[in-house]
Amino acid sequence: MILLGINSIINNIPFLLEGLGVTIALTVVSVTLATVFGILLAMGRCYTRQPLPFLIYIYEKVFRGLPLLIIFFLVYFGLSQQGIHIKAFYAAVTGLVLHSTAYQIQIFRSAILAIPEGQQTAAMSLGMSKPKTIFYIILPQVLRLSIPGWSNEFTILLKDTSIAFSIGVVELMARGDAINSMNPSGILHVLLFIALLYFILVFSINKGLNYLEKRYRLSGYEVTAVQ
Amino acid sequence: MRSLPELLEGVPITLLLTFCAISAGFALGLLLALGRVYGKKGISYSCIAYLEIFRGTPLLVQLFIIYYGLPNIGIIFSPLLAALLGLSLNSAAYQAEYLRGSIQAIPANQMIAGRTLGMTRFQSIRTIILPQALRISIPAWSNELIYLLKYTSIVVYIQVRDLTFQAKDIAAQSSRYLETFLVVALIYLLFTILFSEIVDRVEKRVRIPGVGLSPRIVKRNMKIPFKT
Amino acid sequence: MHMLEVVDIYKSYGSCEVLKGLSFTVDKDETKVIIGTSGTGKSTLLKCINQLDPPDKGEVWLEGEDITNPSIDLNRIRQKIGFVFQDFNLFNHLTALQNVSIGLEKVKKIEKENAREKALEELRRVGLEKQSCQYPAQLSGGQKQRVGIARALAMDPAIILFDEPTSALDPELIGDVLDVMKNLAGKVAMLIVTHEMGFARNVADEIIFMEGGTIIESGPPEQMFNNPKKERTRQFLGRISTLYGKE
Ligand SMILES: Nc1ncnc2c1ncn2[C@@H]1O[C@H](COP(=O)(O)OP(=O)(O)OP(=O)(O)O)[C@@H](O)[C@H]1O
Ligand SMILES: [Mg+2]
User: Fold this and answer.
1) Ligand 1 atom at minimal distance to the Cα of residue C14
2) Measuring CA to CA, which residue among C194, C245, C200 is closest to residue C221?
3) If DSSP codes are grouped into helix, strand and coil, which group holds residue C57?
4) Is 90 exceeded by the pLDDT of residue C168?
5) Which of B66, B102, B187, B218 is most buried when burial is the number of CB atoms within 10 A of its CB?
6) Are the C-beta atoms of A25 and A164 separated by less than 8 Å?
């Protein structure tokens, strides 16, 4: 039994590692885009005039209330019904970014709100323009403050990529599903191995970002963003 | 929309899964949190291991292991039971983290004050620490509820006939993907908004006058607000 | 021409009228001290001067230019008006040196090396060259405020506004900051809101007593302390010197 299981892992290693590659690619592309949009929209919510903040708020509410799976279906099947065909990988990226951005706006916005108002006043009193104030004074502090929340979101997104198998992206989870349909008798070990791969990824992201947070922590300065 | 009744057939399953899993997850999560904070070394480390494993792997993989994997060693669950088990075990890990944060946010001298009244450690935890900690954790918990509701949708991949299952079915038969999924999206959205409103009300009800509750924790799972 | 001329300014927040027609001037290298009870609008006045919170009515002239004119480039004007805050407002993510040099680099567009040089010089002037690499959180309150002063000085402002620069400090740290300010007296125009009567008496060229959004009386320290014209001034100064002690 165990031998059978180990055998099925070993036989499938190349196949699984390919899937792992897709998972990583999906994660990296999506997290990058979602972070950029998250920062921009958070600033949009804090620094622009109505109605933009309200629209961003609605966006957040909607996309945090929808299951990722349904977002995937809408983007992939819904669009293709309208004659817009996009590759499953890009549909998955779109879905993940739409979903994660909604959460990241919140992370960055609470960091922005945690920066004392005096920082901006002081910058303005030196004659800094608003864009300069945001870029040189606010943003560097916001990014530091957001690291814990952001790293959390990063690992959630990684775990969420597994749902992309629903629209046929051949990432790690899809490989497991494929092996399951070919050879269900040894699947337990394969699935445990897949779980281990995810675990290692999540673990390294957490450790890496923890290190980053320590590294960029301002000694003695403890402001925590209240989320 | 003629298939609406058929679609709505899935709603009870989705809600059932959400409520059962949040309750079971809460009970187990509370034990894990207490074990982690107050347990002896062995217990504390076992709890940490549990949390790390369940929070370090995707829910979908966990569901697959329970439904497709365990039969390899002779353990067989029905789809619904497998879904319930997976969701509960997973949610317990997240809820335990929220609860731990809230427990640790209660000042240490609350415990000392209890002990000076002659309460045992267990009594102090039960009558002094927990009533405060549970109140603090409501916002995070509301988040978890919404999250769980959303994530029940993936049980469709272990053959559970929930809302999403019905939607997929109808969409495939009628090839009206866009309309069907938009309606389902709306239903989920309705429930998520409804739930967070209800929990908000409850939170205001049970708030202790003068004790500043932490501002809403609008996050998937807690990390910053209870930095320890 | 005065360095700074404030002409009849008014400011309200909602229905609460804070400034009710204030006028005064500050000349080149002159030191003026504003005193008055809490909540009379001293901070509001300073914010109206550097247009962080523009007045509703009235004019503020700086070096012959009407800076309340809406078409004016405020970022250019603010470079000429230094501001020292009660609660320091140092940039938390920058070292003492970077706090001083950032305005030079990003606003005045001075080359990095030169900005650094200049910033170091300003830190030396406030006695903090040793602390140049420390972050604000690693500095004492008095040190923070001296960095705040250096940051304002570095921009070579025409005038520096101080909003109760020592009131957030422990008593034993106040002296360091006041010494720095004493050294500046006569070298740059300063408008100082403070409760430090001993300092006001020794350093100010003129003291302005403000209450209820207007100026009650102003004059040289000798006159204000020894024979004020108004009864209210006498009362206030009498009370405050028993409170803070005479120097
Ligand atoms: N942004 C604001 N919005 C509404 N009211 C304000 C605002 N800023 C100041 N005020 C009000 O204006 C009045 C004057 O405030 P200000 O801070 O100028 O007083 P102050 O003389 O500096 O007092 P203190 O010595 O305590 O610093 C106060 O009654 C205050 O409540
Ligand atoms: Mg003030």
Assistant:
1) 4
2) C200
3) strand
4) no
5) B102
6) no
| Chain C hits for A121, Cβ within 8 Å | 52, 85, 89
What are the helix (H) ranges across A48-78?
A: 52-65, 68-73
The two three-digit tokens of residue A67, written as one number: 């299951």
Does A23 or A213 have the greater pLDDT score? A23
Residues in A 111-150 with any Cβ partner in B closer than 8 A: 148-149
Contact yes or no for C211/C232 (Cβ under 8 A): yes
pLDDT score, position C221: 86
Rounded-to-integer distance, Cα B99 and Cα B138, Å: 9
pLDDT one-digit tens code per residue, C73-106? 989 989 999 999 999 999 988 999 999 999 999 9
- Cβ B59 vs Cβ B90: under 8 Å: yes
Q: Which residue in A has a C-alpha nearest to residue B69's C-alpha? A: A188
ipTM of the predicted structure?
0.87
CA gap A118, A113 in Å, rounded: 12
Contacts of B53 in chain A (CB under 8 A): 199
DSSP code, position C21 = E
Q: Which CATH architecture has domain A2-215?
A: Orthogonal Bundle (1.10)
Segment A77-99 shows an average pLDDT of 90
Higher pLDDT, A227 or A175: A175
- Please list the ranges in chain B whose pLDDT falls under 50: 212-228
Instruction: For chain C, give the mean pLDDT.
Output: 88
Q: Terminal CA-to-CA distance of chain B, rounded, Å?
A: 52
Judge whether B225 and A226 are in contact, CB under 8 Å: yes
Q: Note the pTM of the prediction, 2 decimals.
A: 0.83
Q: Measure the CA–CA gap between C10 and C68, rounded to whole angstroms.
A: 12
Domains located in chain C, CATH noted: 1-80+159-247 (3.40.50.300), 90-156 (no CATH)
Asked if A199 and B56 touch (Cβ cutoff 8 Å), the reply is yes
